[in-house]
């Protein structure tokens, strides 16, 4: 309950109460609406800073699919992850996706379970990373546009789905670090 009106009554020399009792009453207190803190949803290449999303630093990226990209300013090609490309783009840097033959050959080695990628599971008996089965992605990464094993059509899939295919030996070429546009699909099929 909440008091409305004066909390102090005085008896005047005329023997009347001041303020008038009619001006004082109690009412039920209305609780202020409960506000839930807004959950800020950022892109995988962003992080929450105070009340907004800001670009991550490239080294803040977690597991993400490798692609060969060229810096147009320096003409240097290097392996970068999809997340790192997004963070660099978010910070104003542009890279072009190029064929894997433009980057140094990667040496794939067995990795311990601490370094498994989105598309891998840990084989605890050998403490090594193995390919997940299709449909087993718990985290998906971002949606990207890919061409799989020379198929005439580009398709949108998650990084995890593309990683599983690549892990199982399919040739997965990333066309865009974003979902496919209709024009990309028709360009591939021509």
UniProtKB/TrEMBL annotation:
Q: Which residues form the Factor I / membrane attack complex domain?
A: 38-105, 112-182
In its keyword annotation, does this UniProt entry include DNA-binding?
no
- Give a single Pfam family match: Kazal_3
Per the record, the domain of life is: Eukaryota
* Gene3D superfamilies associated with the record: 3.30.60.30
Q: Which UniProt keywords apply?
A: Disulfide bond, Glycoprotein, Repeat
The molecule here is called Factor I / membrane attack complex domain-containing protein
Q: What is the protein's species of origin?
A: Micrurus spixii (Amazon coral snake)
